Amino acid sequence: MSTALLSCLALAARQAPSEVAALIFPAEERAILLELSPLPEPPRDPTNAVFESAAAARLGQALFFDARLSADGSISCASCHSPAKSWTDGKPLARGLSGLARHTMTLWNVAHNRWFFWDGRKDSLWSQALGPLEDPREHGTSRLAILHVIAGDPGLSRAWREVFGELPELGDARRFPREGRPVPAEPEHAHALAWAAMTPEDQEAVTRAFARVGKAIAAFERQLVSRSAPFDRFVEGLRTNDAAAMAALDARAQRGAMLFVGKARCVLCHDGPNFTDFEFHDNRVPVGEEGGDPGRKLGLRQLRADPFNTLGTYADDGGESGRIKLGLLVRESHLGKQFKTPTLRNVARTAPYMHEGQFASLAEVVHFYSRLENASPENPSERIVQPLDLGAEEEVDLVAFLESLTDESLPDELRGPPPTPYVPR
Amino acid sequence: MEDPGTNEPSNVPLETETLASLPDFADPSWTRVPSRAGKYLVCWRSLAGSVLRNQDFELEAWVLRDGAPVRDAELTVSGWMPAHGHGMLRQPQAEARADGSFRVAGMLLHMRGHWQIFFEVLEGALSETAECALDL
Q: Do B105 and A328 touch (CB under 8 A)?
């Protein structure tokens, strides 16, 4: 996008009319807009027995902000999912310990998701939380090291007992080394050697406890809800013919809303009250080089091989929900590079955008979809991705609408570690 | 959301005598779809009462020939979005039941727009497909 055009967009945004004259929404557009709010409660998670436990959420909150859950004590979940940055890191690509190839996704409304990570290589929120902990590029720690941290911390161990009961007998150093995890690709890795020296029974006890670490973190993350944006007040006004409530969106944002569900067709993928279809698409975003990140294609294979998937023994419903969700999943994304449709709630606070942080601003994103300049090749299975040919004013309107999805009104007590990992009596 | 009943074909007679012990397929909750060569009539309904976009649902389906349920047939259900160039993300699982019906699990139509729903009936070495449309 040219600097001149960006300047033009910025100027137009400053000149947006402050008065609000409610637009007349055609019946079809109105009907779609009414489907986009309110956001319901997140779905239940039958694979996580403690998904709605306050005590588990409190423990999970403590773990989320605890940098001891990393190889060098420098990385917590909040390092990349910072509450000050709308639960992202503001960087094009995640850093972690040694740098990653993808952009950090926000955690807003994360419990609504069907799949996790850009490539969907996880199918539950608790399983997602486990991945970065043992990834050498992110936290770089191990399940044994994490459990030793919990066991050695009076507050964490008390909270653990109250939520899950007793930890494995970690005091026996011969049975439970300080560090260790399965490392199938590197059998000579120190973590792998320590793990291999353990009995299968002890390995199983540790792995089951490790899964519970994820389940506690998931219970915390379930509380990261954004559902009271100006757009939600506007829709309520639209529903009740309340002009004052509709004024929550100025005329420019209202025009943008009309575009979103109409000419611009954003709603085809960013559908429903969380503004995502929860699935994967090749949106033809420019990628660095051919032969790069395959997205969903590889993610699906990883998911099927993951012992923590919803068909596995660590799912608390015995694999029942995974039987349909994962067991009947057949589509391999053989055409193009598919990545998950992200939520648009708080999208104005989560720049940069796309799976590699390709675009610095919403204006750039909208302009890309308008022209598809430098787009990756057309994908026969994504025929809907065509240039929108929006005018400059329309692009500004659409950005104004996206900004109206902002609501970061989370209780302050969720923005940092809790005073204690357990619920005081 | 579309009422599934709106895909009801107009020219396929129901032999009400034969169907006396079967569900009332004339009820608006049922969609009746003749197969392409007219050999079968597929009657289906969502067990959730309606088809909701991007939400799991199950189907009850009956494959009728001359008004009677076809037994020993296999049923395969799939969906396609012609304007998008893709179909469903799952292969729904059809289970034959003792009463002659099929219970189809794993239905998920994940995007808004025009869907074609295919019911392929495999009986012996021959197959025939019934097709209907859903606009979600």
A: yes
